[in-house]
Amino acid sequence: MVDECSPSSTRPARPLHLTVDVYEQLKDKITPNGFTLERAIQSGVDNPDSGVGLYAGDEECYSVFGPLFDAVIEDYHGGYKPSDKHVSDLDAAKLKGTVDPEGKYVLSTRIRVGRNIRGLGLSPGCSRAQRREVESLVTKGLANLKGDLAGKYFPLNGMSEADRKQLVADHFLFKKGDRFLESAGANRDWPEGRGIFHNNEKTFLVWVNEEDQMRIISMQSGGDAKQVFERLVRGISAIEEQVKAAGREFAHNDHLGYIHSCPTNCGTGMRASVHVQLPKVGAHPNFKKWCAKLRLQPRGIHGEHSESDGGVYDLSNKERLGKSEVQLVQTMIDGVNTLIAAEKALAEGKPLPSELQ
Ligand SMILES: Nc1ncnc2c1ncn2[C@@H]1O[C@H](COP(=O)(O)OP(=O)(O)OP(=O)(O)O)[C@@H](O)[C@H]1O
Prior knowledge:
Order of helices and strands: HHHHEHEHHEEEHEEEHHEEH
Family: Belongs to the ATP:guanido phosphotransferase family.
GO molecular function, one term: creatine kinase activity
Distance between the termini: 35 Å
CATH superfamily: Glutamine synthetase/guanido kinase, catalytic domain
Bound molecules: adenosine-5'-triphosphate
Keywords: ATP-binding, Kinase, Nucleotide-binding, Transferase
Shape: globular
Oligomer: single chain
Largest sheet: 8 strands, antiparallel
CATH architecture: 2-Layer Sandwich
Structural class: alpha+beta
CATH topology: Creatine Kinase, Chain A, domain 2
Organism: Monosiga brevicollis
Radius of gyration: 20 Å
Domain Phosphagen kinase N-terminal: 1-78
Number of domains: 1
Helix content: 25-40%
Strand order of the largest sheet: 2-3-4-5-1-8-10-9
Number of helices: 11
Strand content: 15-25%
């Protein structure tokens, strides 16, 4: 779905990184895949309300247009420098505790990562043939998944409107292409090549050829983030095996971690979220400040930029780069538990947890 590359009216204004000098330096450059600066910035140009407004059409954009991407990444990812290294850690055993151990506040937990295949264009620069290749490679791999991960692929092409709407309403499927991805060129040939894979229980899902070639998702009711993470990691490994068996690999490097079309997702590409009932905390004037302090991102429950419904919020880790997956899931677990403690304190007229004071 849309991400921080796309809009936010609430986000503070960011400095302008596309200066005249940077523009002059980069305007005639072109990646080996044929992607230009003009295409990378098109979404931001068309949509002045973009949060970042910059997309990569291939992995090489991050080096060919380095002076612009580096500046945006440093700004967005809290001072992350071109010399910094990103380290991944997918060891679920290291997670401590669970979200909402009493089971009173959290409705569901979901963790997603993005993955793209090296050598095949990222969504804004993916040709029709490449998109078909991604779909074919990924769905062949998914068909080999075993046990609780096994499931079926449902292409968007040919899916009834009623089924599509139901999958979106049930929080399983991405919405129809938005104006930010449209301007970025990521919605070309829609809906061809796009689709969703899910297991029978709809606890393991893969979105194919949306904002990234793959969004790999694990979700379930309740707050057992460890179980959700563990399933996700098994899913990622199984898919990676299939990608390798096809003679390909995920786009990845030591500096940017996993490469994504939106620079805000580089690193882990991970968003670990809960849908959690926090009517008092959510209505508190300090809610956004508390989320920022706990390094959480609040959203409404129908995806980014939707509003809260009945005091239920989508809370997730805000950072993606420079911290490992384990660290980010732990940030979400600890932060949400602090807000749950605040919800109880507000209901009982007791002092707020020390982390929020
Ligand atoms: N913890 C959760 N439980 C149930 N559904 C969830 C949860 N977190 C997110 N969702 C649902 O997943 C769908 C996609 O959400 P959303 O677009 O906000 O995020 P995303 O998939 O992480 O991608 P992006 O950040 O690129 O927008 C929405 O329907 C949303 O309600």
